[in-house]
Amino acid sequence: MTAPATADTAPLRIETRDGGLLRITLVDAKRRNALSMRMIRALDEAIAAAAADPAVRVVILAAEGPAFCAGHDLKELTAARAAGDRGRAFFEETMTSCARMMTEIVRCPKPVIAEIAGVATAAGCQLVASCDLAVAAEGSSFATPGVHIGLFCSTPMVALSRNVARKHAMEMLLTGASTSAADAARMGLVNKVVPAGCLTEETEALARVVASKSPLTLKMGKEAFYAQAELGLDDAYDHAARVMVENMLARDAEEGISAFIEKRHPVWEGR
């Protein structure tokens, strides 16, 4: 099922697929799917709706056109300089709203997979890095090129530095150079690179594997993964141990273990 875009709605197309998959597609190709305030709000609302929908198991974030996402809408930001505060209030609203949307992706209880075709630059690269998994088409590229225009990619840096090694992140941030899909995979920014003609098929195949698992287990596991990553070693183990105890007490874990022992497919209840 597809939710059609109208003149009053954001430039997104939202479609459901069998097996609990939800596709959110950026369709503002004319603006290279830039993260205008309109786009940021739309993505925030779409992710929040997916998080609250029990029928959704996995979210796929894709885009139409030659760019997955070109980052912030620089024309929109420049126009705000005409305000009496030289744009400060609008800049703050934009950056804060974008950071909140990226955080919503990380905190969404459903796994989010980026499906990248074309370029993902600046906040577009941040969008990829904020997703749990990423599949890129051959020929895709990634960059944090703000340094070229005198604007360091500080907010994209947050997500990027949590995905790749520091030296790789700093090279992208300090040089602004484009990174190929193959190099992005080697760095850990994307999970795999596939032929462009197979991108949607490969992404949805990965999504279906994930969606076949217990939704409760996915929620608990995703939350625990990001929580422990911010902790020291001892605290991380303490937190993970508490999560595993709660997970073991869940009905789905009881069912999954029983199904494994009895050599049958589990029937998930999401509790």
Sequence-ordered SSE layout with sheet pairings:
Elements: E1 2-3, E2 12-17, E3 21-26, H1 37-52, E4 58-63, E5 67-69, H2 74-79, H3 88-107, E6 112-116, E7 119-121, H4 123-130, E8 133-137, E9 141-143, H5 154-160, H6 166-175, E10 179-180, H7 181-187, E11 192-194, H8 199-211, H9 215-229, H10 233-249, H11 251-262
Parallel strand pairs: 3-4, 4-6, 5-7, 6-8, 7-9, 8-11
Antiparallel strand pairs: 1-2, 2-3, 9-10
Helix pairs in contact: 1-3, 4-5, 9-10
Descriptive report:
By secondary structure, the chain is an alpha/beta fold. The chain has 2 domains: 210 residues, 2-enoyl-CoA Hydratase, Chain A, domain 1; 48 residues, Orthogonal Bundle (Lyase 2-enoyl-coa Hydratase, Chain  A, domain 2), CATH 1.10.12. It is built from 11 helices and 11 strands. Strands 1-2-3-4-6-8-11 form a 7-stranded mixed β-sheet, sandwiched between helices. A hairpin with an 8-residue loop joins strand 1 and strand 2. The longest helix is centred in the middle third of the chain and has 20 residues. The N terminus is likely disordered.
Counting helices, strands and paired strands, the structural category is alpha/beta
**Count of individual domains:** 2
Report the β-strand fraction as a percent range.
15-25%
Helical fraction: 40-55%
Ranges where pLDDT stays below 50 over 5 or more residues in a row are 3-8
Q: Which sheet architecture does the biggest sheet show?
A: 7 strands, mixed
Q: How many β strands by DSSP? A: 11
Give the helices and strands as they follow along the chain. Answer: EEEHEEHHEEHEEHHEHEHHHH
Query: CATH first level of the largest domain: which class?
Result: Alpha Beta
Radius of gyration: 19 Å
Overall, the morphology is globular
Q: Give the termini distance in whole angstroms.
A: 27 Å
Major sheet strand order: 1-2-3-4-6-8-11
Number of helices: 11
CATH topology of the largest domain: 2-enoyl-CoA Hydratase, Chain A, domain 1
> CATH superfamily assignment of the largest domain?
2-enoyl-CoA Hydratase, Chain A, domain 1
Query: How does CATH name the architecture of the largest domain?
Result: Alpha-Beta Complex
Mean pLDDT: 95
